[in-house]
Amino acid sequence: MNKKRIIFHIDVNSAFLSWTAAYRLQQGEILDLRTIPAVVGGNPLERHGIVLAKSIPAKKYKIETGEPLFSAVQKCPELTIVKPQYDLYIKCSNAMVEVLKEYTPKVQRFSVDECFLEFTGMENVYGDYIQLAKDIKERIKKELGFTVNIGISSNKLLAKVASDFTKPDMVHTLFKEEIKYKMWPLPVGDLFMVGRKTVSKLNKLNIRTIGDLANFDLSVLKAVLKSHGVLIWNYANGVEDSEVRCGNFINMKGLGNSTTISFDVEDIRTAHMILLSLCETVGMRLRDSENLCSLVSVVIKNSDFLMYRRQRKIYYATDSTKEISKIACELFDEIWKGEALRLIGVSVSELCTNEMYQISIFEEENIEKERALDSTIDKIRRKYGSKAILRGSFLHSGINPINGGISEENYPIMSSIL
DNA sequence: TCTGGGGTCCTAGGACCC
DNA sequence: TCTGGGGTCCTAGGACCC
Fold first, then answer.
1. Which of A64, A102, A114, A363 is catalytic?
2. Are A391 and A276 in contact (CB under 8 A)?
3. pLDDT in tens, A361-379
4. Is the torsion defined by CA of A176, A250, A282, A353 positive or negative?
5. Which end of chain A is least crowded, N or C, by CB within 10 Å?
6. Total domain count for chain A?
7. Which window residues (118-147, chain A) lie with Cβ within 7 Å of strand B?
8. A212 Cβ contacts chain B strand, under 7 Å
9. Is A400 a domain residue?
10. Is the pTM for the entire model greater than 0.70?
């Protein structure tokens, strides 16, 4: 007999906006961004002009995450726009995870602002799980200054759906027996893994609510949506049994770095320089994770927003910045048709542990020197910041030598709490 | 559309081998 | 070439998530 599982899903309310708001209050600001129509957004002049997070008052104007700032301002002319503070968000996220780990060792970080917690078999420690959730939520609010929603159920899917019910600062349950009246009336697009494209396909089958999907003929769904159809049909019926996985780099499949450049890239030299700067970060993160990669892939987006990519399998797993960027540049040269580009990205996958570094017989013998160099540069950057050391080719190029790298800004007042 | 950046998984088609 | 079928590997592209 299976023991009944108890899973929490924790979701920070309007994460980026709340975190910036909490930080500003600590800095002595009086106005709480969460109480006015406000969004976190990038700089449109740098072509980063989209809404990253919105306050609840902003949501009342039908402003949506991911939409252009331009259109958000049209919906609400008095909208307050603040810049993202990514370093702060990492700190807030880490601080929350530390608090959560005091309650159970089984904490899975699902994204920067979401975690799953497992309490199965801990009945003797915690009697009343709803009260426990309320305690956790109050503690985060009091100690860290932001609110969360907590969803409780017997699997991760239902817990996640539950945390998305009314917001902010709420605890909800969604157990099997509650599915029919709490989940089935919701629009089908509210279901995890049912995005825009799938909604329109489902609508053509006259499926509008999660309940419609749950009670639909599975064989028809399978014919139209293949395995994805089976997956969402199971989800609509509350069927899901994945583990709560803890650990940092466990199961990491790949990593990448891409950037929308503030100007159109139209020459190969600039493109290669940007590729190298992206590879600096990719290589460093790969080495941090103690992995090697066997697949390198380059993606580009042109000014018509068409995206395409090219990948290459390599037969000597590597973590060398130089090697990765050499391949990335070759891949770029193979796909680029010469048109103006707005985005360039590099990613690596097919990872394996770096315990046994397999040296290719085709590689020159100074590979060990290259590894030592990468590792030294990593150490210097970790200690003195990402700009402490950089390649000569970037001097006077106007291109950031590290993309997505660690910024040295810190938040002194915040750090006393976090 | 004045449209970001980090991921995961699935599918189709071609090459190649037996 | 009027040439079968199955399995595996690889690449490109698309869908989804936050």
1. A114
2. yes
3. 555 567 778 888 888 888 8
4. negative
5. N
6. 3
7. none
8. no
9. no
10. yes
